[in-house]
Every structure is written in C-alpha cells, then in structure tokens.
What we know:
The protein is an alpha+beta fold. It contains five helices and ten strands, in the order E-H-E-E-H-E-E-E-H-E-E-E-H-H-E. A hairpin with an 8-residue loop joins strand 2 and strand 3 (60-70). Helix 1 crosses helix 2 (76-86) and helix 3 crosses helix 4 (199-211). It is globular.
Amino acid sequence: MTNPLRHLKLNVTYDGSGYFGFQLQANVPTIQGDLEKAFGIILSESVRVHGSGRTDTGVHALGQVVLIHTTCPIPVDKLIKALNGVLPPAIRVTSVEETSPEFHPRFSAKAKSYRYLFKRVRERTPFLERFYCQVVGEIDVGRMREGAAMFAGEHDFSSFTRSPDTKDNPVRKILSADVTEQGDEIVFDVTGNGFLHNMVRNMARALLLIGRNEMEPHEIVELYRNQDRRRLGPPAPAAGLYLMKVMY
C-alpha cells in the first residue's frame, strides 16, 4: 500500500558565507543542493526543495521557508533531528509542519522581512567579514534613519536593482523600514510585499552613503523618479544581509 503524499513546510536557518546562494547550481555548493542531499539520505528518495526565494552568494537566513513533497511517514519531530544530524553545520532546520497542498513558500507569501547589519570598527577585521558590513570612521545614524523613512510606501525601485528586468514589475510596497543602534551594531530592518534582485543591499548602500554625508536623505525620492542607480555605486556587501522572516 502506498503512503499518502505529504506536504511539509520547513523553516531553515543558515550561514550563507560558504555557499553560492540558495538556488541549485552545478559544481558549486548551494543551500538547496545540501538540503536535497540531506533529504535523499534521510528519506531514501529524490526530493525537490522549493524555497520562498533565492538568497544570493554570501547572504544568510534565519527564516527561510521551504517546501517538500514526500510519501515518507517519518514524524516531523524525528525528521528535524535526522536532518540536522546529516546537514553541514552551516545549515539547520528549526521547524517542520504539515501544510496544505495549496501552499507554496514563494507564491503564498504576503511579505518578507530582511535585516542588514553594519558594524562600527576602528579597522576592518577578517573575523567580522562574513557577517557584517564593517564601517570605519564617523557615521550619522540619525541621518540613516531619515533615509530609511523614505523607503516606506509604494515606489518604483528600478534604481535599487542591479539589472532591471522588463518582465518584473519594479513597483514594491515597503511596509516598514527603520534603523536602530545596538552598541557598535547599526541595524537596518525592512519589511515589504516583495523585493527585487539586490534591492535590500542597494537600500543599505544608500543608507551608508547618507550616514557618511555623501548623500542626502531626500535623494532617495529622486532615485525613484530618475530610475538611475549609478548614484549609488556597488551594492552593500552580501555578508551583512539576513532573511529574517516570511509572512503568510
């Protein structure tokens, strides 16, 4: 007798430093690739992992959501332990639950929250390089907070993506955006109904320029209008970016 098909929703956290992003690629380590290898070992079947979205090379996650379909009857609590027993230390499954056949981690998502971490340092150190954008010298957090406020609302974010795709609507709605201080850490938190490629890193880059008095907060509004990202230069480093939560 064939076991019924199960739809399992998992929350996954990972250090993306040693990975070429989430999405499966040939001949390089990816989060999706290592997850599928682990499922193959535990479930003794080939399983495709569906994620809530792609995180790029070096980007981390505390709340990546993935979905698998399987006929294996292993209970969810045992599945968590089994997966974490074979996954590399940089990846951990924090929860598993049964979900409906209609659920999809990407298409069912209502919003996502990201965090970008800056770290004030006297001089850059390799021991922070994997997890922060290190900032040497003065930076005005109040000005950064003013800039973050300019992100709230619905805007055309063409200037905040590396290569705008004419097939992808560049209009996104930012539900909240704020900058806070926690000791030497400067934390940029942003929640929106969707994000373009490199969008959060470019938002963080704009805030860095504003904090260094190299750009005015009101210039963010000008970027919406002129749709020319050359003003920003390269995006902020991937190492400071974390996918925090996906809301359904």
